[in-house]
């Protein structure tokens, strides 16, 4: 395989920012081209404005930069996606199908597509969710991602395109505050705890969801993308998880460090979405195929999150 020259879509997002740093550290600043719909306020290397539905611009960038790998992160998330289902489908799936065809046409070496626990639904086992199960997602976000998984497997089988994918659980990070997702409470709570000493949760206290900390997200993603092709048995998407938590259990862990922290509950429309998802995940296939193993559990994640947010706040002040 050639030395990768990588293009990232949705590079300004929660995962995109951290993935950019990691890939530029590995391959060099000029080897990673970031793209997004809005400008990067602090670009650290090559950056191009890109509406992901503009496939002609995408083709031009691939050709101009001689791209060999694509990380296609651009998407509308679960909660925000329900506000405009047609737009969500256009961005999350229609654009992806065009990128799959473009990847074949332009002989892209490897393509990463992020999937999600949002593909799970009321018929999916909620405890120790297996790699293969009944998936009837309740949001257009989940529907688009499940469809994308199947098309990725199809393109691998028919065109030998090296598509790789992970079903991300809720992602916790301090670098970029997410917006539009159902699991965002697990990030918001930290910032509110430090800034105000209290938080109002839009999910009920015992709503249990699988999570993963950002350093493990990046390590796992790069581990999958760097694995030999013979170690990657599927292109649909791998189950992946690190720990599960509820708003109440996360609040209790934060109280260990901030005893005065208070949490209250005012569930909104995201409660129904969360209840359609799973509680714990069987990610044994990722572990056996390419060696996935998270470094952080909830306790170590909470300590690291609070430490890094405080550092950020001190730098600003």
How would you sum up this structure in a few lines?
It is built from eleven helices and twelve strands. It has helices at residues 14-27, 55-65, 78-81, 85-105, 140-159, 185-195, 214-226, 247-255, 270-275, 284-290, 298-316; strands at residues 6-9, 32-36, 47-49, 69-72, 110-116, 163-168, 170-172, 198-201, 209-213, 238-239, 243-245, 262-265.
Describe the structure in your own words:
The protein is of the alpha/beta class. The protein has 2 domains: 194 residues, 3-Layer(aba) Sandwich (Rossmann fold), CATH 3.40.50.720; 96 residues, UDP-galactose 4-epimerase, domain 1. It has 11 helices and 12 strands. The chain has a 7-stranded parallel sheet with strand order 3-2-1-4-5-6-10, sandwiched between helices. A 3-stranded mixed sheet has the order 7-9-11. β1, α1 and β2 form a beta-alpha-beta unit. The longest helix is centred in the N-terminal third of the chain and has 21 residues. The radius of gyration is 19 Å and the shape is globular. The protein starts with 5 loop residues before the first strand and ends with a helix.
Task: Provide the CATH topology of the largest domain.
Answer: Rossmann fold
Give helix % range. Answer: 40-55%
Q: Which CATH class of the largest domain applies here?
A: Alpha Beta
Give the helix tally.
Answer: 11
End-to-end separation: 47 Å
* Average of the residue pLDDT scores: 94
Strand order of the largest sheet: 3-2-1-4-5-6-10
> What are the segments in which pLDDT stays under 50 over at least 5 consecutive residues?
none
Q: What Rg is obtained from the alpha carbons, in whole angstroms?
A: 19 Å
User: If classified by CATH, what would the architecture of the largest domain be?
Assistant: 3-Layer(aba) Sandwich
Query: What spatial form do the alpha-carbon principal axes imply?
Result: globular
CATH superfamily of the largest domain: NAD(P)-binding Rossmann-like Domain
